[in-house]
Specification:
Elements: H1 4-18, H2 24-31, E1 40-42, E2 45-47, H3 49-64, H4 77-97, E3 102-103, E4 118-119, H5 124-143, H6 152-176, H7 212-231, H8 237-250, H9 253-269, E5 273-274, E6 278-279, H10 281-299, H11 301-312, H12 318-336, H13 352-378, H14 384-400, H15 407-420
Antiparallel strand pairs: 1-2, 3-4, 5-6
Length: about 450
Amino acid sequence: MPTGMGLLFLAAGFYCAVKRPDSLPGLLLFSALFPATSALALGSLWIMPYYVVAMLFIVSQFLRCDRQASRSNFAGQTLLLVLGAFGVMSALLFPVLFTGVGVYSNRLGTSDEVFQTFPLVPNLGNAAQAVYLTINILVVFATASVRRTAHIWGALNVAFYVLAGTIFAELGCLVVGIPFPYRLIENNPERDLLTSSVGSIAQRLRGTCGEPSYAGLILVIFFAAYFYRYYTGRGGGWKALVAVIAIFLVRSSSAFVTLVAVCIIFIARNPPFRFPTFVRTRRLVRLIPVVAGVVACLLSPILLFLLQEGIVDKPTTGSYSHRTAMDQYCLYLLKRTYGLGVGVGSYRPSSLVASLIGNVGIIGTALAALFVVQIALRVPANKGWIRWALVAGLIDMALAIPDITQPILWCLLAVAVYAGTPTNPSVPHDAAMPESPF
């Protein structure tokens, strides 16, 4: 049965599919903000809004392909098809081939505090992950054929306002001393809902995402997009600053590290100086507020405490040791499965890289890497924010998010494919890409 949030997304999805089909990609991107929300629930089974909107989008787009010129061919589509076929095959076949191999999986009831493994057995979770992977791949193909009027940039801004607004609303509730209404957005049957307790100011916030780490992932993606546009003179600096503050509030260590890494890599590739004498004045002027903001954050006792606890002290915690052991176990699985992996949905470590290696082995990991590199290189220069958002998302997931079927990851891949595919094969690629965000 549809839940309250599910009815909202179903109504919005059907309306867009019938009246405004070009808005469906934006709605799909927005729905990725709600991974802890159940749109459809039947007992203990639940489906998040993203997959409800994704199915509407796929059906709508493939029906429209008969009535308009399709742009469904894109760079990397063969790699994506092979990756999808291998991933689905691994989910259905490898748990049978390697039954009994010890795997770590929350689905099998493993403790979050003590690392332990259970014998691998075929189960419905593998089939479910195969279905999710198939839907995500179809989303990429459907996105490649949408019109240029799709309002993806507007949806990105709306998603940012909603997530940041929710995080600051959580903070306000903590300051005032009233419980935040998590039940409105965290309504799936598998979650412990924090609907009655009031935390302290040091509590990790999570916005609409259900988990601080996932909130940090999306925030660092927002930061990369807005920081790129700000540094290249297209505005959005205040949004990048708000994203940084929100990252401090959710206290995601992976987001902290990714934030620093993205800044260092980006400034190294786009320096304000060209030695020995040339100075890019505009870049230098835009960089000064960034440096001043970092210094101000480091001088703030509260933010400095959060930074100390979230990064500096992290390696000394039991959680860090536990997660490290989970990730390193992928090498054992690689050896036990002759480099093939145990199949999508069988092994859930702490990072995307370990998840790929342990689940789809050398072949699947290589296919995924080649596909990502190929589509990232196709993103045109005037849409560089997409490439940097994808880089930020991949770095964060490589550190702390293991889910191969993570909705926001596939949204980024779909947007990159969308930006890198010409509107018409007869039009030069650069001419097909206007200067507007989308």
